[in-house]
Specification:
The structure holds two protein chains of two kinds. By secondary structure, chain A is an all-alpha fold. Chain A is about 55% helix and about 0% strand. Chain A has five domains: about 10-60, no CATH class; about 80-155; about 165-250; about 270-370, no CATH class; about 390-505, no CATH class. The two termini of chain A are about 45 Å apart. Chain B is of the alpha+beta class. Chain B folds into four domains: about 10-155, no CATH class; about 160-270, no CATH class; about 280-360, OB fold (Dihydrolipoamide Acetyltransferase, E2P); about 375-465. In chain B, β6 (about 285-300) and β7 form a beta hairpin. Classes of the chains: A mainly alpha, B alpha+beta. At the A-B interface, α1, α2, β1, β2 and α3 of A face α3, α6, α9, α12 and β11 of B. β2 (about 65) of chain A pairs antiparallel with β11 (about 395-405) of chain B.
Amino acid sequence: MTPHEPTDRAPQWERLVSTALVGTARRTITTPPGLPERTESAAALLDLAALDTVRTRAGYTEHTATPIASDEPDPRPEVGEAATHRLDLVLDHRSELLPEWLGLVVRSGRRVPHSRLPDLLERAARDSVLRPAVAAATGTRATWLAGFNKAWAFVTAEPLPGDVFVDEDWEKGTFGQRRRALFALRAQNPAKAHELLAKTWPHERKGEVRRGLLDALEPHLEVEDAPLLDTALDDRNANVRGRALALITRLSDSAHAHRLRAHLREHLRVAPDAPRPIGVDYLDTTRADLLRDLALATPEQGVRPDIERWERTKVLVVHAPLDVWTDRFDTDPAGVLDLVEDHPELRDALVESVCLHQDAEWARAVLDHAELGLPHMFQASVHKLNRPRIRSLLATLPPAERCERMLAALEQVKKHRTLGHALMAAETPWTRELSEAVIGRLLDPLDLTVPVNVPDHRALAEAITAYMPPEHLDLLPEQPPYEEEAHTYLRLRDALRFRLDMHKELS
Amino acid sequence: MVGTSAPPGAPEALGLSPVLPSVLFVSDRWSTDEVWALAPDPSSRKAALKVAKIGSWPERGTIPAEGGGDSAVWGECKGSGAKPYLAAVHLDGGRGPAYKCSCPSRKIPCKHVLALLVLWAQDSVSEREDRPEWVTKWLFGRQARAERAATGAPAAVDPEKAAATLRAREESVGRGVEELRVWLHDQVDAGLAEVPRLGYEHWDRMAKRLVDAKAAGAATLVTQLPQRGGDDHWPDLLLERLAMLHLLVDGYLARDEVDERTRAVLRSRVGISIRSEEVLASGERVRDTWRVLGHRDGLTPDGMRVRRTWLRGIDTGRPALSLTYAQPSQTPQSPFRSGTEVEGELAFHPDGRRAVRAGRMTERPLSRPAGETIAQALDTYAEALAIDPWLDTWPVVLADAVPARDGGWYLADRDGAALPLEPGDLWRLLAITGGGPTTVIAEWSPRTGLAPMTLWDDEGKAITL
């Protein structure tokens, strides 16, 4: 906004300014009747200028402006004063806890104080990971505010649990409003949402819009959605094709799934006497239908290294339903993993397929496997730790089982640092038993080399800070168990206490 | 001083009753926000957070005030050294809180004091019967000084001597102002077209002459004359400022022919200040319940921080301005807290606007004022300008104000009149009001617009910006 210049100045003001610029030695000014005569013409000019200046200030007249459309009051109660203060501390010093704080607010059915909205929206504008949580905790007022500030428009596109489908939003709204409307309808009436999307699909010109609308199918994904997703596999936009493949892969009964089964069976080679009894043929890249079902681009002509050909073949192994393997060899998942033991690349592709399909039975087989299993994954060095794989295999299991498995695996991990990184990779809250075991390791004198290895120790403390439920704070004695790293230990206790207070304030 | 706790009853041995009689100002426990508002800078806030832990303060307590609430908070903070840092805050010292800490930090308040106050605000410090000797000594000393000031001040001002001092000062200033008059005429005679090419020394020389003549106010106005930054409006702004200086010069030189109040305004604008003791001894006293409308911070030309706290009497409707200054590294401490109203007496400077608190005051949460329309607010400002044409900021209390737009952002009243908003707190204002009508207290400046200070949210809660 520009400073507000008084525009309704008397016309003689311009003349005063121009005379002052030239100088009263060269040009004089006549005193209007009613003002005292001055002998010095400088004083005469300044008299008039002062008169005009004071008159302009005192005679400042109001403007007119159109009041903006106001927002409805948010029916959710505001969080308490203590929680508000906690938010300020989090924003200032512990921004890593912001997602947790926002999550607690949403769960408590309350809302962030309006006065903190600009701060939170600024954060989310810079960090897109925060956006869904900020949108949910700030609610309708943030959406309303974003109407006046383009930099915050992202918040209008985030679907919220209380959203209601409004026809007008869907028909005439911005992309964000349409996407939200579709999400809202999907929650109420999945079939109707699918129908609307199918109807509009051929008319959506922008790839990013099609990609964004496709997301709405993800909740309540059903086999009825498969034909539309199948169409999307022909999309001219690669992102849309990729998203469609990711979604359709989850539907094991679709026509697409049946085609992938057929493709895989066709490529499977079994030769009991060969060094590798089981293998998968490289894909035939002239087969347009095959490439299309896997959302693969037609490769350029020329000499292709084997590794590239295997990468393409792997896409088939990863996306095809896993039952092809158990049916073909008439065994359980563990049996399949044993059968392919001489083909590490294939076995690796199968594990990836398990992660993608989120199949608990297969995940257990992988986690129990002697060579691949969780203890083995946990012991990998920090650089080789396969974090996404650990997280996604464990994610298929109920939380208690995840912790049991982690508990069993952690005994075999020697270094605190490796353990810390492995526990971070799991990204799951701990059971009491797991907390006890991890704290046991932190305090175990046998575990402590002297002098204490500082980075190792800190890595473990970091994992405890992030994933141990704060109500397990009582497991940590008040006094640090060793002098060398007392600071890290006290910081750990402080952070957990901080989280504990945060949970109490928002329970 | 060693921080050993005196046994209960020790204060009586010193001749002090356990409850100090100097209680003038009853304060409720503050919110943590109010404590953080005292932090001189963000780094002291960070540092304070590190020591704001119960474990760092093995000894701590509050001393109750006569009428309820707390009179003082004290604590001993375990530091890195062998001796603890001794920190205390006198909450009701009469002119806002006073701090003490044995640490070497030059920041006021230091991190220990802030940390102690935060713990207190969070209800982690409770009343203790016994207190260490250093606390008792400090509070006793403060009380004794306050009593000396209260009984001794009026006698110290000898009316005849004071009048003579003032006359001498006025004459000295008068010589400087006469020089300024000639200088102003020279500028206008020679023409302002050359101004963008003039160096800083051109203005500085005149400003220094005025400082020597003890006319600091006029000197400030001179240093504000040059316009840098290539704004197209520089000739307008420069002529306006020269004209306002000219008005001050003419007025001052004719000071014997104007009424008492105008003369006081001229004196204060030119830079003849008056000590608070004098104001307390002979200034006009007005008793009322004063709403603390809010505050705005600024910088003086010599880099000091200044806080303008605006008040308005509920019964008298009288506006009052409290000015407090601080070093650049400190936050000015106003004796009035935003978001409250205080009942008691103010002593006014001769200009009838600036005021200091005079003695006992009770504090309550701020009640919602009825408010006025924009036209009424502008009228009041115009009336104030008639007495003090140099007044560039003015508090306005707008009823049913709504955010509005016309290119830029405005605040409109229910008659449809609107004033431009200063953009600083725009988003918070919008977020809190949701565009609905509410009472907004703002500082108005015709040059920069409305700067909101306090407003009420949907639930009727006062929020200080």
